[in-house]
Design brief:
The complex is a heterodimer of chains A (about 70) and B (about 200). Chain A is built from two helices and no strands. Chain A has helices at about 1-15, 25-69. Chain A starts with a helix and ends with a helix. Chain B is mainly alpha-helical and about 200 residues long. Chain B has helices at about 1-10, 20-50, 65-95, 100-125, 135-165, 170-195. Classes of the chains: A mainly alpha (about 70), B mainly alpha (about 200). The interface of A and B includes residues 30, 38, 41 and 42 of A.
Chain lengths: ~70, ~200
């Protein structure tokens, strides 16, 4: 029974995989590159903004200290 | 007596310096989400094209996208971004001096959208629609999403220009609309070279 269920369900599972039915090298590389880009991009945006805000905070804090001094 | 005065002065809470205006921060966060939206659309296009290597692309029977004609629109949009930068520098010296360059920037942006609209009409007449092929679907989805952003940004710039004319535009509001316009300007070359080539 289990074997029958697997035999029925497995082809569907394979077609659900985007690179399984079209496993050309170009397609796999495109998936890899876009996955990396979409993973790194938000981290870069948020991290870059965080670093810029930190730099700006230090600059403004330095100016405030100089004003007090 | 002198020492205690100094101690009291040091304990006084100092107001935290404002790093950037709330409207600017809000626009930056919004632009980040829009960057992710366009990245997703462009990624889908890249993956789709990678599965069509060796096939004829664009598909037979579908019109070719006007790469050279769109170069003029692209130039107008890029120049608009540069002129807006000039407007911001002029605003820093004297707000009234930003009126003319900002108006030029808005007009160049409007020209871009109008030229894109004319291009769309030609392509629809030639048979390229959302449902004619995946090629058409990707084109209208990606370029159309950009056009919606361009129109919204032009309205933002026009609103800022009207406020500038009446002397009510502050630098935070200027920066806010400016960030949105730069996003529209800078994302376009990526779309242009990805979709039109």
């Amino acid at each position: 029974m289990l074997v029958l269920v697997l035999l029925v369900a497995l082809p569907e599972a394979i077609f659900a995989c985007p690179v399984c039915f079209d496993a050309s090298a170009e397609n796999r590389v495109a998936f890899l590159k876009t996955a990396i880009a979409l993973s790194v991009l938000p981290l870069g945006l948020v991290g870059g903004t965080g670093l810029w805000l930190r730099k700006r905070w230090r600059e403004l804090s330095g100016e405030s200290d100089e004003d007090l001094g | 007596m002198e020492a205690s005065t100094l101690t009291l002065a040091r304990r006084e809470p100092q107001p935290s310096p404002q790093l950037l205006a709330s409207s600017v921060l809000g626009m930056l966060l919004f632009v980040f989400t829009e960057i992710m939206l366009f990245s997703g659309l462009i990624s889908a296009h890249v993956i789709f094209l990678s599965g069509r290597v060796g096939e004829i692309w664009p598909p037979p029977g579908q019109p070719r996208l006007p790469f050279q004609e769109t170069a003029l629109n692209t130039t107008a949009l890029l120049v608009s971004g540069v002129v807006l930068l000039i407007a911001r520098l002029a605003y820093a010296k004297s707000p009234r001096r930003a009126l003319v360059p900002m108006a030029i920037s808005v007009l160049l942006g409007a020209f871009f959208v109008a030229a894109q609209g004319a291009e769309w009409l030609d392509l629809i007449r030639e048979g390229l629609t959302m449902t004619s092929s995946t090629y058409g679907a990707f084109f209208y989805l990606i370029v159309g999403t950009h056009a919606v952003h361009a129109v919204a940004a032009i309205f933002g710039l026009a609103w800022a220009w009207l406020r500038l004319r009446t002397g009510e535009l502050n630098s935070a509001h200027f920066d806010t609309v400016q960030i949105f316009w730069y996003f529209v300007v800078l994302v376009w070359p990526v779309i242009y070279f990805q979709v039109y080539v």
